[in-house]
Design a protein that fits this description.
20 helices; ATP binding; single chain; ligase; Gyrase A, domain 2; Arg-tRNA-synth_N_sf; alpha/beta; four-stranded parallel beta sheet
Length: 613
């Protein structure tokens, strides 16, 4: 078996083949030699309680070759080279291969991954342009709990895919067009005394009109709606303003543009606090596609895909039927000549393929929109825009955020929970936990430092709670649980990071440094806890590669929790600063690599890695 495989990436960093990959290749080669007809069989390398790894392929192979599983295991074992990477192979049970790795092989992985800031992770997504559609708030509306999951999951995927080499294009599909803006603009013009710009309002009421610019605008819209429903003359003026907006009237457009700008200002405040990498440059609202809608309709009609039905232009699905057994329709143009979000989404996917050159398009939208995207993708395929052989379009669904009662999260009055209020609650809970922790240790921490730590812990807790479970499942928003120092929480991971930093800090205070290389690291055999931690560290790249394929950030979150847990076992079993010579050097190197891996993993989830807590 060849030693650790290293290849240079385009950026010049070194990619390291994991031991999982090396073992899969080596055992796969042994199977091919022992049973040539079974070449390509998966060796099924898995973790083991009895060795470093276990190969479980013999049982499946035995059925195919008509032999006893232990006989198959023996024959395969005879073809496995022992010495450089595999130290020992033992057959157990009905035919499992227990693989013990050499200390030298384990340490080579550590040394290779310590080089460079990529930690040996290969850029497996290089050459793929990925367009990610996420967050998607509405202009003049407050961001609320319903925007949390799209923003957090989408941002994590964007970070991970970028790190893996993909050319990621972030797209924030804002709801910024429609008849409601005519109503709002008319009301604003008639009530200039009511503030709504960020320079005019003050955050005096977290739930009221002055909470933010979008809160003020939302309140104005509700007032406009009330007048619209009761005052026919105002309703006529509002309808005329819609026409003026759509016709490009200069004054109307100027007010609309200012509303968009003020809303973006409020969104940016949320994104900055949440640590979401979306900016105004990533925003492409419904209005952006408005001028494309006529062409989209004409192209679909000319291709014979869009047909007139009851005065409307629709695409009838070839794949989906409704309760009446009739094809489900995707609305291209309404009977009144207007366009809705079906048409906008058709224009959007066409633009992202033709103009942005997407190889992969990800829509981070909740599970309830599954049918809509199925119809959009079908229409795009039939129109020839979406070639599945060249472009992958995926709806990446997610579940809901639930309240303590297990129902969709609402305020006590039954309203939608502002996202900023949600974050405030988490930070307040984290502040209590952090303060109590400092007092229990007798540590004096300044108020400013406490508030900074609480902000990092609270925001990290919210994001980790969202990302640590499968995205398709609902989860309960429980600030007490998510800000706990113990258990599978973001705070636990952040605290683990501070412990690693503390070890390295105390080492520096004693004049000790983490050596660049530790050539004599395995003159003294590795302890079991060291081996377990090295094997866990070695899985980082494989986990990221899995996330790139299945788009499940919870795999990374779970890996980081396991890494932190295994590090705790190592910390308790293997003294670092109390050890000496090459053993101390290697343990300092292991701590440093673990800290860097945990920090990188947290960053890819969009979570801060504080140095003190």
């Amino acid at each position: 078996m060849a030693p650790v495989s290293e290849t240079s990436t385009e950026s010049g960093a070194t990619a390291v083949a994991s031991l999982q990959t090396q073992l899969t290749d080596a055992i796969g080669d042994a199977i091919a030699v022992a049973y040539p007809a079974q070449s390509g069989a998966d060796p099924l390398i898995r973790p083991s309680d009895h060795a470093d790894r276990q190969a479980n392929a013999a049982l499946a192979l035995a059925k195919k070759v008509g032999a006893n599983p232990r006989e198959v295991a023996t024959r395969v074992t005879e073809q496995i080279a022992v010495g450089d990477v595999v130290e020992q192979v033992e057959i157990s049970g009905p035919g499992f291969l227990n693989l013990t790795l050499t200390d030298a092989a384990l340490w080579r992985q550590v040394e290779a991954r310590r080089v460079g800031d990529r930690l040996g992770v290969p850029a497996v997504a290089t050459g793929v342009r990925t367009v990610i559609d996420y967050s998607g708030p509405n202009i003049a509306k407050e961001m609320h709990v319903g925007h949390l999951r799209s923003s957090v999951i989408g941002d994590a995927l964007a970070r991970i895919l970028t790190f893996l080499g993909s050319d990621v294009v972030r797209q924030n599909h804002l709801g910024d067009w429609g008849t409601q803006f005519g109503m709002l603009i008319q009301y604003i013009d008639e009530h200039p005394e009511k503030p709504w710009r960020h320079t005019e309002i003050t955050a005096t009421d977290a739930d009221g009109e002055n909470a933010s610019t979008v809160s003020a605008l939302d309140a104005l819209y509700k007032a406009a709606r009330a007048v619209f429903d009761t005052d026919p003359e105002f309703a006529d003026r509002a309808r005329a303003r819609v026409v003026a907006l759509q016709a490009g009237d200069e004054a109307t457009l100027a007010t609309w543009q200012e509303i968009v700008k003020e809303s973006q200002y409020a969104f940016d405040e949320v994104y900055e606090r949440l640590g979401v990498q979306l900016t105004e440059a990533d925003s492409a609202g419904e209005s952006f596609y408005n001028d494309m809608l006529d062409d989209v309709a004409a192209e679909l009609e000319a291709a014979g895909l869009a047909v007139v039905s009851d005065g409307a232009l629709v695409v009838l699905s070839d794949e989906v039927t409704g309760p009446d057994d009739e094809p489900v329709a995707l609305m291209v143009r309404k009977r009144d000549g207007g366009y809705g979000y079906d048409a906008t989404d058709l224009a959007t996917i066409r633009y992202r393929i033709r103009d942005l050159g997407a190889d992969r398009i990800l829509y981070l939208v909740d599970s309830r929109q599954a049918l809509h995207f199925r119809l959009v993708f079908e229409a795009a395929r039939r129109a020839g825009w979406l070639d599945p052989e060249r472009v992958q379009a995926l709806h990446v669904p997610f579940g809901s955020v639930l309240g303590p009662d297990g129902k969709p999260f609402k305020t006590r009055s039954g309203g939608t929970v502002r996202l900023m209020n949600l974050l405030d609650d988490a930070v307040a809970a984290a502040l209590t936990v952090v303060r109590e922790g400092a007092e229990a240790k007798g540590t004096e921490v300044g108020e400013e430092t406490l508030n900074l730590i609480a902000e990092q812990a609270g925001i990290g807790a919210v994001k980790y709670a969202d990302l640590s479970g499968s995205r398709v499942k609902d989860y309960v928003f429980d600030v007490a649980r998510m800000t706990a120092f113990n258990g599978n929480t973001g705070v636990y991971l952040q605290y683990a990071h501070t412990r690693m930093v503390s070890i390295l800090r105390r080492a520096a205070e004693r004049g000790l440094t983490v050596p660049e290389r530790v050539p004599a690291a395995v003159d003294t055999p590795l302890e079991t806890a060291e081996r377990d931690l090295i094997l866990t560290l070695d899985a980082f790249a494989d986990v990221l590669a899995e996330v790139a394929v299945d788009l499940e950030p919870h795999r990374l979150a779970g890996y980081l929790y396991e890494l932190s847990r295994v590090f705790t076992d190592f910390y308790e079993a293997c003294p670092v600063l109390a050890s000496e010579g090459a053993v101390r050097d290697r343990r300092l190197a292991i701590v440093d690599l673990t800290r860097r891996t945990l920090a990188k993993g947290l960053d890819l989830l969009g979570i801060a890695a504080p140095e003190r807590m």
